[in-house]
């Protein structure tokens, strides 16, 4: 039985420092029989697979793509996961509501999926401006009686997801599916869409190159189970594997 579920974001977490990645890949290959490796990314599956080829990423056991809205487990869709997402999710109604927001630009079809509706902001918003925008959007959803999670990343990327989706939710789902304890899970990330998995009841590691929105959240919450690494990209994951009581 494997004893660690390692869920990592790709861009600017696993990927970004080729030397550290090569070192992590070697470590994970020696731990192959003990680690369930899962990639959790905002990218589509096609985009994530392209990155895998370009950067020489190991083949994972699970792909949680579209910000944890699509799960591919050992090469197959997971029907129990999909059933969770269907609850209270009305994608056409959300699209109709937001088509009236001139500051939102719909992302290309390749970035959309049945359980993810994605936009970019015409002008990036950081800090207080980003929070205000998010609040305005939440109020709009409430008024229209629509339910969705609003995931705002890197100042310009906006994803709407079913309430049951997200990187944190998919990590919890896999923990349960695999029958692991919370202290047998490690999540790794750098930006706003990683917040849900880094704030879970399991171990987390935040890279030193974390985005301002993630740092702002960390300063407020400071979870005991989250390591704020002084190392960047894949080096931070190695740091967590070396220092946390995981294996
Ligand atoms: Mg990232």
Structural descriptors:
single chain, 247 residues, alpha/beta, Rossmann fold, Hypothetical Protein Ta0175, Chain: A, domain 2, 2 domains, 8-stranded mixed beta sheet, 4-stranded antiparallel beta sheet, 21% strand, binds magnesium ion
Which kinds of small molecule does this entry bind, naming each only once?
magnesium ion
How many strands, what sense, and barrel or not for the largest sheet? 8 strands, mixed
Percent of sequence in beta strands = 15-25%
Q: Compute the number of structural domains.
A: 2
Mean pLDDT: 95
Structure explained in plain terms:
By secondary structure, the protein is α/β, with parallel strands linked by helices. It has two domains: 4-83 and 165-243, HAD superfamily/HAD-like (Rossmann fold); 88-161, Alpha-Beta Complex (Hypothetical Protein Ta0175, Chain: A, domain 2). 38% of the residues lie in helices and 21% in strands. The protein contains nine helices and twelve strands. The chain has helices at residues 18-30, 45-55, 79-86, 91-98, 127-143, 167-178, 195-198, 212-221, 234-243; strands at 4-8, 35-40, 62-65, 70-73, 76-77, 104-106, 117-121, 149-153, 157-161, 185-189, 203-206, 226-228. An eight-stranded mixed beta sheet has the order 5-4-3-2-1-10-11-12, sandwiched between helices. Strands 6-7-9-8 form a four-stranded antiparallel beta sheet, with helices on one face. Helix 1 crosses helix 9 (234-243). The radius of gyration is 17 Å and the shape is globular. Magnesium ion is lined by residues 9, 11-13, 190-191.
């Amino acid at each position: 039985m494997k004893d660690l579920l390692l869920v990592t974001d790709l861009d600017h977490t696993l990927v970004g420092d080729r030397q550290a990645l090569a070192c992590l890949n070697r470590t994970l290959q020696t731990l192959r029989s003990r680690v369930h490796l899962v990639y959790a990314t905002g990218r589509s599956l096609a985009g994530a697979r392209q990155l895998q080829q370009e950067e020489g990423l190991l083949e994972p056991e699970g792909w949680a793509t579209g910000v944890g809205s699509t799960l591919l487990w050992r090469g197959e869709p997971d029907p129990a996961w999909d059933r969770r997402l269907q609850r209270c999710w009305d994608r056409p109604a959300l699209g109709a509501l937001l088509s009236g927001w001139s500051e939102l630009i719909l992302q290309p079809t390749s970035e959309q999926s049945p359980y993810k509706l994605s936009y970019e902001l015409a002008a990036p918003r950081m800090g207080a401006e980003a929070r205000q925008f998010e609040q305005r959007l939440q109020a709009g959803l409430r008024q229209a009686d629509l339910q969705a999670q609003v995931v705002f990343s890197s100042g310009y990327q906006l994803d709407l997801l079913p309430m049951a989706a997200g990187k944190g939710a998919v990590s919890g789902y896999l923990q349960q599916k695999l029958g692991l304890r919370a202290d047998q899970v490690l999540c790794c990330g750098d930006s706003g869409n990683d917040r849900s998995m880094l704030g879970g009841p399991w171990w987390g590691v935040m890279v030193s190159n974390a985005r301002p929105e993630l740092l702002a959240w960390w300063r407020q919450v400071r979870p005991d189970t989250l390591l704020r690494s002084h190392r960047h990209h894949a080096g931070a994951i190695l740091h967590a594997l070396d220092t946390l009581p995981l294996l």
